[in-house]
């Protein structure tokens, strides 16, 4: 059974204070690892897809990295508008042809204080 | 591009009733997946539809059923509602093959009283 564990559950940062969120996973063959941002009461907003260990992707103040067992979402000099819940999800290579079943973690709630 | 749209945005139902939620996928997408997100939890996969057939199903009872129409839009039906069915229901669309991003709608907040 695929599993995703995110830590910490909640993180409070001062504006400008860089940090990292962790996503540990176990999956029977990784097809892709996904990061989403979710604002309260809204649907998840796609951020990144990583496919293989060593891959990195960046978008503004966010950088996602991937190893064989975990992924990190690095936030550099965060701003209050970065406050949200960040979700990590994995897609198994054995979930069936054409399948798009994602297994999500519970998320990390990030609060950036001005 | 309208993205993924869901209706209604909020819904209140009584225990034992039935509910239908609707989803229109992002333009160009042919696959629709449904997720249930309880408060404080990550989304949980319910099922996926492609070519008007259920292709994969998560660990949800038969009370949860769905349908996909020729225009790729989809419905999620839940029968005999329980209090525990209260959640945010999310629809995600993607292209078959799975190697593209899944885009989510804004969700339908279902409250069962």
Pick out its properties.
heterodimer, A: 114 residues, mainly beta, Immunoglobulin-like, six-stranded mixed sheet, five-stranded antiparallel sheet, 0% helix, B: 113 residues, seven-stranded mixed sheet, four-stranded antiparallel sheet, 50% strand, globular
Estimate nothing, just give the exact number of structural domains of chain B. Answer: 1
What is the overall shape of chain B? globular
| Number of helical stretches of at least 4 residues of chain B | 0
Considering the protein shown, what is the CATH homologous superfamily of chain B?
Answer: Immunoglobulins
Unreliable runs of chain B, pLDDT <50, ≥5 residues?
none
Tell me the greatest interface. A-B, 27 and 32 residues
Shape of chain A: globular
Percentage of residues in DSSP E strands of chain A: over 45%
- What's the CATH topology name of chain B? Immunoglobulin-like
Mean of the pLDDT scores of chain A?
A: 93
The rounded distance between the terminal residues' Cα atoms of chain A is 41 Å
Please give the number of β-strands of chain A. 11
End-to-end separation of chain B in angstroms reads 36 Å
Quickly name the level 1 CATH class of chain A.
Answer: Mainly Beta
Taking all Cα atoms into account, the compactness measure Rg of chain B is 13 Å
CATH architecture of chain B: Sandwich
> Could you say what the CATH architecture of chain A is?
Sandwich
């Amino acid at each position: 059974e695929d599993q995703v564990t995110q830590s910490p559950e909640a993180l409070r940062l001062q504006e400008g204070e860089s940090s990292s969120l962790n996503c540990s996973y176990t999956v029977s063959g990784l097809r892709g690892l996904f990061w989403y941002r979710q604002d309260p009461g809204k649907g998840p907003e796609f951020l990144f897809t990583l496919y293989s260990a060593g891959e990195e992707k960046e978008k503004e103040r966010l950088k996602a990295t991937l190893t064989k067992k975990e992924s990190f979402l690095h936030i550099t000099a965060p701003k209050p508008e970065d406050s949200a819940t960040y979700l990590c999800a994995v897609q198994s290579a054995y979930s069936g042809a054409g399948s798009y079943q994602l297994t999500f973690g519970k998320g990390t709630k990030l609060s950036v204080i001005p | 591009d309208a993205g993924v749209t869901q209706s209604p945005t909020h819904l209140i139902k009584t225990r034992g009733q039935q509910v239908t939620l609707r989803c229109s996928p992002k333009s160009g997408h042919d696959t629709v997946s449904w997720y249930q997100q309880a408060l404080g939890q990550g989304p949980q996969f319910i099922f996926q539809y492609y070519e008007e057939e259920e292709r994969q199903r998560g660990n949800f009872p038969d009370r949860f059923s769905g349908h996909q129409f020729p225009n790729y839009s989809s419905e999620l039906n839940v029968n005999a509602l329980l209090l525990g069915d209260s959640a945010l229901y999310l629809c995600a669309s993607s292209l078959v093959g799975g190697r593209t991003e899944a885009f989510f709608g804004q969700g339908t907040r279902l409250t069962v009283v």
